Amino acid sequence: MFQRLDTAATPTRHVQVWLDGEPHRVAETLTVAAAVLQLRGWQGYRRHVDGTPRAPLCMMGVCQECLITIDGCANRQGCLEPVAEGMRIERQGGDIHDG
Amino acid sequence: MKQRDFLIVGGGVVGMAVAYGLARAGQGVTVLDESDDALRASRGNAGLVWVQGKGVGMPRYAELSLESAKAWADFAGELTERTGIELEYEQRGGVDLCLDAEEARSRQADYAELQNASRYMAANFRWEYLDREALTSCLPGLGETIPGGTWSPHDGQCNPLYLLRALYAASRALGVETRPATPVERLEATAGGFRATTPQGQFTAERVILAAGLGARQLASGLGLTAAVRPVRGQVLVTERRPPGGRLPTPQIRQTASGGYLIGDTHEDAGLDKGVTLAMMQSLAEKAVRIYPDLEAARLVRSWGALRVMTPDGHPLYETSTTHPGAYNLNCHSGITLAAFHAEGLAEAIRDDRLEQSFPHFSGARLHVSAS
Q1: Contact criterion met (CB < 8 Å) for A75 and B242
Q2: Chain B residue with minimal CA distance to A97?
Q3: Span B230-310: which CATH code?
Q4: Can you give the pTM of this predicted structure?
Q5: Taking the domains of chain B in order of start, what are their residue ranges?
C-alpha cells in the first residue's frame, strides 16, 4: 500500500471524493491516480480490455495506464487530473471502451 | 572481416523487406541502420495496404501496387509462420472517401483513365463508386455530409510496427546481421565491392543497396544514384480504444485492431520537422467527426508527425548505378503496400542484377534531364 511521506505531510486541505461510490477524504494536492493508489493500492486499479490488470506506471501523462472514469467521462488520464471536491471517480474493470 | 554479399543502408520497412527477400534466397546481408532519433518513416505511417490512388499517371506503379496487394496475404502468412508475430493484416476491402462532389467526379475520372492506360488494371482492378447510402453498410455511422467514396476489394490494413518487427525477426533467423545505431557517414567503391564508413567501424560487401529514405540525400550522389527525395509531413491522431465499429479502412481514418482510430491524411512541406501543429490537428479532428459523428466524444491519446519520402514524381525509384555497378537505390513512400513485392520480385531482380531490365519504368533515368 502507498503511504504519504511524513515530510510531505505539510498541512494541506482535504477534499471529499467518491471512489466507486464510497466517500473518502484525500489531500487536495493529489492527482486522481495518486489518490486511488493511496486509498486502494495498485491492485485492481484498472483492467485492460483484454482482461489483464493494469496500474499507473509513469505518473506523468505518457503511459496511458492510469485511465479512469472521472465524473462519468471514461478514459481520463488519472495522473494528470487533480482531485476536486465532490469528484466521482470510478475504476474501469475492462468494459469495452476501456483503453 | 569476411565480405558479405550485400550491405543494405537503412533498416526501415523497405530495407528490411529486401533484406528478408535476399536472405531467403541465400544471400549474406548486413543492414546498417541509424539510431532512434532518425526520421523513420516506417514507424510513423498508418499501415494501409492500399491500391486505390496509386499510380495515377504511372500505370506500371498501379500494377505493381495491385500485384503486391494480391501477394500480401501469403507474404504476411509466411512472416507469421516464421516468427509467430501476427501482423493484424486484413484485406476486407477499403473505401477512399470523397468529401465533395468535385472529388467524387475527379476520382472516377482518374480511375477510368488508369484503366484505359493499362490492360492489366482494366482486367484486374476492381472498384466502384458508392454514394453515401450505399456506403453505410461498410462504414456504419458515416456522417450525413459525406457524399460517397470509391470502394475496392483489394485494399486492406496491417499493423506496420508488427510488420517491421516481423521482418527483423525473420531476417535475423535467416542470418541477416542488423546493426542499429550505425549511421553510414560515407559510401565508396573498393576494388572488390563497396565500403561503408560508420562510427562503429567499416563494413564491406560485394554490392550495396541504399534504402535510406531521406538519407539518400546525403549518400546517393557519390555512387551515381539519385539524391532527389523530399520530405512530406503527415500528422496523425489516435483516439482512445473504442468498440469495434465494423468499418472498412479509409485513407482518412481507420480503426486499428486494438480499437483506437488512426486519423490522418495530411500532406505538408515542413522541412525535416516531425512535429505536429494545433491547426492541423484541429482540422484532422474536425474531418474525423464529419466522417464518423460518434467520434465527437472520443478522447485523443496521442498525436505525431512523420515524414513521407517523396521522389520528384511521387513514384517508386528502383535504380541501378551506371557509374558504380553493384550499387542500387530504392526509394518510395508506399513501403507497406509494396513490402510483399519488395521481398519477392524486387529482391530477386537485385540478386540477379536485372533491376533495370525487369523494372525499367522505375529507374532513375526518368527523373534526369540530361545534365551534361
Answers
A1: no
A2: B242
A3: 3.30.9.10
A4: 0.90
A5: 4-46+161-228+313-367, 94-153, 230-310
Q: B148: which residues sit within 8 A by CB, 6+ positions away?
A: B97, B98, B104, B129, B130, B131, B132, B134, B135
Each residue of B187-205: pLDDT tens digit?
Answer: 999 999 999 999 999 999 9
Residue A30 domain-assigned?
yes
Percent of residues, chain B, with pLDDT higher than 70: 98
For B66, phi and psi rounded to 5 degrees? Answer: -65, -45
A66, part of any domain: yes
Residue of A nearest to B302 (CA): A62
Within-domain flag for A95:
no
pLDDT digits (tens, 9 = 90+) for B221-243: 999 999 999 999 999 999 998 88
A→B contacts (Cβ < 8 Å), by residue, are 49, 64, 67, 74-76, 96-99
Structure confidence by residue, pLDDT tens digits, B132-178: 999 999 999 999 999 999 999 999 999 999 999 999 999 999 999 99
| Domain B4-46+161-228+313-367, second-level architecture | 3-Layer(bba) Sandwich (3.50)
- A-B CB pairs within 8 A amount to 22
Contact B243 A49 (CB under 8 A): no
Give yes or no for B246 touching A (CB within 8 A): no
CATH of the domain at A28: 3.10.20.30
> With 60 as the cut, is the pLDDT of residue A99 above it?
no
Range of the domain at A46: 14-90
Cβ within 8 Å of residue B372, ≥6 positions away: none
ipTM: 0.70
* Cβ–Cβ gap B241/A64 under 8 Å: no
